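Please check this record.
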Amino acid sequence: MEQTLYRFIKDLFTDNGLPIRFIKIPCHDWNWIDQGLRPEILGIEFSPDYVNDWFGSLSQSAVYHLTDLFQCHYTFFFLPDSGQYCIIGPLLFEEISGEAFEALFQKLSLPEAVWKPLKNYYHNVAFVPYQSFYETFIQSAAALMTDQKPLQVFHQQIPVLDLWAEDQNFHFHVSEHPLADFRHIELRYKTENIIFEAVSCGNESAALEAFGKIADTLPVRRLSNQLRDSKDFCISFDCILQKAAESAGVHPIYISEFSDKNICQIEHFSSSDQCKQFNRTMITGYCNMVRQYNLKTFSLPIRKAITYINMEPDADLSLKALAARLGLNPNYLSTLFTKELGVSLTEYVNRCRVEHAKHLLLSTDLPIKKLSSCADLQISTILLVCSNALLH
């Protein structure tokens, strides 16, 4: 039960783009805690012993909401049953951009070399617009996970991450090309390849899990307009998914139709959150397409036959007519079709026409007689389709 609850909370945060970890103390590597800001962008090294000792000073029956010098927020609380700390963050309750970014950059006296990497960093930190709602939810989740009511709540600075600011002789060890940029790009390309492979197999769960990682490391902002950036990422991501579906043997005509609808929807979005969620919708759609139209295992003549049948269910699909269209001997086509699909051509055509009639029934106002002529089916078959559609 405990592990199920932890997994549920972790999935809930991760699916909404909020970083969360369960960590046992002592931990010997803390470079991940701020998503690479200090060790990779600023060249600041953490002292594991000092961080572990600091955690040891915290109350184990309290929730800590902590803020660092970069206005990033973290939440910590102890889980007595597992002996772990739940660590959430970094998060932003106010977006750091424009004048706010410039003011903070000057206040911290940061070197010019980190101006662009730091700006990109803020672009990728999760933004939570409702701080009070977030803290109320955390209070309830922590009480549930620790089985402690009530828990004390502390709001304070987090000194353990910013000891460098107290050293007047401190110098940043900034490389000419901060590692964060390289690792960010490497992670994005690696994850996109994982998504490509998963979608090409129709594996929706694996593709969505991988996207959960890339969602937190979206590309560097190229434009001042964040919404336009998000839309452009959606469109480029759709191109990746198109190629994945094509590699699975899905006919381009299905891919093109679905992609055109995606682009139209993307251009009508009014927020970056809509774009982010739609990326998941596209993954689901392309995976469904691969599972439905995957023709990779079939021979070229059968691929052409299936595509034509699916696209033109009301055409003349007799064995003789289809064989003539494909330039094949009718007996050869019949034998090959039955061998590769396990059903006769006539049976497959009837199944497709039933599905076509069902689609027309549910998505149009055509009368049954018209459906019968469109799908080239008997009215009795259409009535059976109607009853099945109503029951399901």
